[in-house]
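Researcher: Please generate the 3D structure of the following complex. Treat every line as part of one assembly.
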Amino acid sequence: MGLSALALISVSALALAGCATSNDDAAAPDADSSAIISTNGSEPQNPLIPTNTTETGGGKITTSLFAGLVSYDADGAIENEVAKSIESDDATNWTVTLNDGWTFTNGEAVTSSSFVDAWNYGALYSNAQGASYFFDDIAGFSYDADSELTGLKVVDDTTFTVELSSPEADWPLRLGYTAFMPLPSVAFEDMAAYGENPIGNGPYMLAEEGAWVHDEGINLITNPDYDGVRKPVNGGLDIIFYATQDAAYADVQGGNLDVLDAVPDSAFETYADEFGDRSVNQPAAIFQAFNMPYYLEHWSGEEGELRRAAISMSIDRAEITDVIFQGTRTPATDFTSPVIDGYSDALEGSDVLEFNPDEAVKLWAEADAIAPYGDTTFDIAYNSDGGHQAWVDAVTNSIKNTLGIDAVGKPYPTFAAALDDRSNEKLTGATRAGWQADYPSLYNFLAPLYKTGAGSNYEGYSSTEFDTLLEEGAAAETVEDATAKYQEAQEVLLKDLPTIPLWYSNVVGVWSESVNDVVFGWDSVPLYFQITKG
Amino acid sequence: MLWYTGRRLLQMIPVFFGATFLIYFMVFSLPGDPIAALFGDRQPSPAVIEQLRAQYNLDKPFIVQYLIYIGNFFQGDLGTTYSGRAVSDVMAAAFPITFRLAMLALAFEAFFGIIVGLVAGLRKGKLFDASALVVSLLLISVPTFVVGFVLRLVFGVQLGWFRTTVSGAAPWGELVLPAIVLASVSFAYIVRLTRASVADNLNADFVRTATAKGLSRRRVVTVHVLRNSLVPVVTFLGVDLGSLMVGAIVTEGIFNINGVGGTVFKAIKLGESSTVVSFIAVMVVIFVVANLLVDLLYAALDPRIRYAK
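Model: Done. Output below.
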């Protein structure tokens, strides 16, 4: 029964992909197909091994160097790359068929083993890969011992099967994430050396051995053998590492940099005048909020629910995004992001995210009737090295003025210090929280943060209703059904408010006069392959 | 003098151990788990964190960590960064760049500072002197990052005379503008030091004697006034070399220079003890040697100074 429904998933994804590619502008006639595009980046935290690259500095590079089973288009829809098809009739057992003719840049063919071996490497306990948890739903995965992914079976060179430990209808959605890239066999001989000079199968490759100069940048050139959906129309990419966004911005102004995907705060007011239609300001897959721990007095039970709603309604998000962020944030209406398929601004109960001082005062008084709040100070913890002070002060002022309680920001010197108190349950009040999606899916915004006992659920939220809806969504037979369940799950969150959603970060980027066709992807990274220059 | 130099060099040993121990302890005492912080909001499984902590010896008590570090240090192994790079590689990349920047800045501030200071001192109370005082006061009171931003905007973005930032290899030519920014405050101090010293020495007995002997004004000024006036300036330059090498964080940030200041700053934020301590150890040696050179220069500048046995 599920067969046809599931077959539809890949079809609809392909259809979407078809739309997206046909929208692409044809390259300008005078564009130089050998031109090198320069763009900003940051020193990767680890050697460039896909399963150990979990931050944006390295992710930007591995995405260009590798082609996985699928890749994401500008809207976050998947398009097949190495995969010919990814099919399942029960959402648990998947059969992956590969296209013929893909090779790594050292000439080795991309086969089923390239994927299976790479995934096994990434998942193995003793390899301590940062992205190992992405494989935890494949049968055989273990968090505390070396164990082979028994759910992965090579059928032949172009076919392998995957057995998940529980059904997941939108499992293929995650396969464009860097953790799922294939590796050539040479990688396993010496992974550290491979990570310095990675050999991939993506649209770009290293310009030469040692093209990655640490702390300076990396030079990529077009991979002539690449024949996927991201075929470059330029000659290569110079990714220059910047310690500050401000220096990168000056370089675009001074003509030393073609594309910048992060405008510094100091230029929020001026970048639009200066760059005009050579700039972009659109929501990104980044959700920002603050959390109230359940282990604190006043913040659990019925009293907590009332107080959480009161706090949420006492914040004037529209004004803060406008004044502090100059419109480079978008007020939140759910717990995900507008760039994700399934985002909604009309969830039941989302009016709790609107500024409503009268209702806030009323709810706060009701909570006081249960147990008086007294003159306890309400604080929001944040790391002072991350540029958070301005909005924290604005939010606490908004709360103070509406509810008449004492509200302040509580700065920690570093992210590490703030994280320490969070994970040891030592907070004295709320804490800033944020999430950037790894792959475009509602599930990725919800499960890691609010599921009972989940890795990043520090503040102790636990709701059977939410957990059940999440599991039902994961096991749903179609993506549409899954989305409906995830939206319902968010309606539970809107009632409980384990986190107070604030806004979505926008990607604010600018580019120089010499480049054209700059489009930013769902993950706030420009689609480099389609940029033309000359 | 050999004896004196040897004694001074021996003093480096306790300074080295004291400084590395203290710095290591300070980095160790930074709040929070540096490994967990590497991953930001997106925490991997606790097993991954545990293994990484063990790999970097962070699961051991402080004194054990320090002894392991020192033990490896004397075998030429400075440890690795959290990204798996050898700290010695990081140093080999950062120090030459910072050294070039510091040398340029030092040359700039010494050359122009002494000339302007000398002329101002000789024409005390005149227009040139007054303007030199005003300009140096301005440079001292305006923070470096303002000077840096303004110069980058004017000469980099608007006029296009210099590159807005320095490219990866940081050739000498591209470092000129950053060196001017870096030197600006010290330049102002040197102008003032030289000026005051020259003005003082003009009234000294030995200058009057030299003039009375009938020496030319030029000879009096260069050999007698200037040479004696340089003692405090050289002291300042010696100390300044150290701060130019470590203290260039702001300038390095503005011009995206991959130097020592920025590297150490990043390592402190990450809680990367081996990187911080290794860099500091080299800085300590540079400081001590620079000060030793300054002390030895005193004798050359002022014949009245002798080194006690």
